[in-house]
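Quick one before lunch.
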Amino acid sequence: MAVLREEARRCVVWFGQPAGEERAGLAQAGWIVRVADAGTQGGVGMRNNDTVVALADLRHGDPATVQAMAQLMADHPWLPWVALIPPDMSAHEPLIDRILEASIEYFSTPVDVDRLVEALARIGGDEPRAADHGDSGITGRSAAIGAVVASVRKYAPVELPVLITGETGTGKEVAARALHSLSARADRPFAAINCGALPPNLVQSELFGHERGAFTGANARRIGHFETAAGGTVFLDEVGDLPLDAQTSLLRFLQEGTLERVGSSQLIKLDVRVLAATHVDLEKAVEQGRFREDLYYRLNVLRLRMPPLREREDDVVLLAQRFLDAFRELHPTRARAFSASARRAMLEFTWPGNVRELLNRVQRAAVVAEDTLISVNDLDLADVLTKQAARSSLGSTRVAAERDAVIACLRESRFNVSECARRLKVSRVTIYRLCKKHQLALDELR
Ligand SMILES: Nc1ncnc2c1ncn2[C@@H]1O[C@H](COP(=O)(O)OP(=O)(O)OP(=O)(O)O)[C@@H](O)[C@H]1O
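Model of the adenosine-5'-triphosphate complex:
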């Protein structure tokens, strides 16, 4: 029996009246515009697999429509909102404040339609599944992760080592698994070994195995990770932590495809692809004599750099929502999505622990959240917004100081622009530019 699947659509629920040009721009980018008004109750014709973004067009903020927006917000708290704000918008009513607080992006009117389309693509996704990169298992829609996936697809079928670099928690192991699963070795074993976690005296035997009686306590023959992964892939995480004797054995394996178990002189031929990762600077380790230069060149044939999360702004909220959805499948929680300030804080934060830290914070927030929306406090990121506010007030203090300095100097120079420019050691053009920037009319100042 044929199974009919409804195609996913992208809809903007527009509270207000889109101009012809706005409607056409969105339609061209593949968005269906549904105009909503005071009569719109709860249901706005969304289907489960549709991507929906709500738009508060405050050019037409009549109280009944604002009320309908607030109702939709209450019924569907996880809906993302954007707001269009007219330049002459007067004092806020509490309902409008709530809408602005819930909005991820604001646009002053007249609207720059290209920017609006870009924002909607960011919020709602370019294509319904663009974030999954097919079968690679790597999630993200940022340009940086797109470049990683392109390299992974190129490197996967090539039988050469790949050196994966990147800060802790950036997904180096995820990338290694993708290289394996997209290679011809996909149905053979994948062994991930954290070299830094192995006791130095046991590294050789863990990797390459040992014979019975090879050392005190070796009561039986043991097969190492390389032999266990025969035909497949070995991923050596923190390869810079390998002791020098293990580096020598690894180099021989890469050059000749053979290994010796500890306590044996018999050469074993093996087909294993080696992937390695490091979060430390291996070049420096080579300079300091802690890492063999010849091994470094062997491992570094193909190089993959995993970008830190702070360079993947477009992925942060997407990954957070994925982690929350995965958590919801396994555990009971009220949380379904993130508040607007939580999203802002996630975008502002620099994520020193990268994707792993994001995963941990989201899981913790899902446990402590008492609402359907995860708040900035649930994520323990309230400080981030406080610092941002302090920075922006510092910015506005600087602007005010610049304005005051220009006015004072103009007064002292009896409004002679050339004299003022000389005193401030800038050009006359700069004085005119500053007057324009701070909306200072020379005639009115006199
Ligand atoms: N693109 C991604 N999509 C989904 N989950 C990801 C992604 N990247 C990383 N993760 C998750 O983040 C966590 C850390 O990833 P991973 O262990 O691959 O990082 P790493 O760079 O190898 O870290 P370390 O340097 O500490 O070994 C894992 O739980 C992983 O599943």
